[in-house]
Amino acid sequence: MHQFAQIVGSRVIPVFSESSNNISRGGQLLGRRRHITRGGINADCFCHEFLHVGAAGTRPVRSHFTYTVYVTYHENSKDAGYTKTMNLPTPIKTRREEYADQTRSALLAAARTIFTTQGFAQANVGEIAEIARVTRGAFYHHFEDKQALFEALVVSLQAAAAQQIRAHAVAEPNVEARVMAGAAAFLDSCMEPAYRRLVIQDAPAVLGERRCREISEAYPYGLLIAAVTELRKVGRLDCENPYLVARMIGSMICEAALLLDGAGSSEEELKQQALAIVARVFAAFSCPPA
């Protein structure tokens, strides 16, 4: 799976996301200069790769991981080749491929409703298939089991959250403003009932903390980590571990979303208070411009 983003000014943007298997002794955060060649991009960029894999003692084991590479681009890095690549027409899908996509989307939509209202444990594959208007055979053609469907739904919710964060942050004039615009957009996503129930509350128990961390860092948390890392790199943030700072700020936002559940008429006021706290945490690490 490759995910491309448009170059706009000086931004930290995702160049591609991949899911794969790997053999390693543990997870690691890599921040280094790397030569990127993807879909017409050919440049030396500073990348942040978030790799998380499992291990049993000292014996390497094979496990699934997800990662996103984020690259800092500047306006003068744009070239005609990349712009041309962005404008390439999308390949036309066959009817079978279109039908398969529709079936998968219907299953995800039905699962979103059932998992949000009933929870993972009470959800039934037959009921999900019935609401999606597909057969049980069609369900198992797309998903190995109920947990695989749940994981796909969590990935789609995290991807949508990341898309919303980027959409709100892209118009801001500097990295600091983009961070706060992204934080506000992330809080809005976290307050959405399906995200709050499935991603924040249920996913750690269903998928495990490690897999949840992998998914989050391929999407919204990855954006936050990359932004905090960039601020530290340009001397605007004084912190030893930008990964830890970003993870803790993201956790604050998720916790605020849980506290805002059922706040009623006080929700907007509490939301603004939560964002003010996030802003003060960032301010505590901020350095004046050189």
Gist of the model:
With 290 residues, this protein is an alpha+beta fold. It is 57% helix and 18% strand.
Give your account of this protein's structure.
This protein is α+β, with helices and mostly antiparallel strands and 290 residues long. It folds into three domains: 91 residues, no CATH class; 49 residues, Arc Repressor Mutant, subunit A (Orthogonal Bundle); 144 residues, Orthogonal Bundle (Tetracycline Repressor, domain 2). The N terminus is likely disordered.
For the record, the count of structural domains works out to 3
Percent in helix: 55-70%
Q: For the record, what CATH class of the largest domain applies?
A: Mainly Alpha
User: Helix count?
Assistant: 11
Model regions low in confidence, pLDDT < 50 over at least 5 residues:
1-86
Q: Please state the second-level CATH architecture of the largest domain.
A: Orthogonal Bundle
Strand residue percentage: 15-25%
What is CATH's topology name of the largest domain?
Tetracycline Repressor, domain 2
Task: Give, in order, the helices and strands.
Answer: EEEEEHHHHHHHHHHH
- Based on CA atoms alone, the radius of gyration comes out at 20 Å
Quickly give the structural class.
alpha+beta
CATH fourth-tier homologous superfamily of the largest domain: Tetracycline Repressor, domain 2
How many strands, which pairing sense, and closed or not: the largest β-sheet?
5 strands, antiparallel
- The N- to C-terminal Cα distance equals 40 Å
Rounded mean pLDDT is: 78
Using DSSP, what is the number of strands?
5
Shape: globular
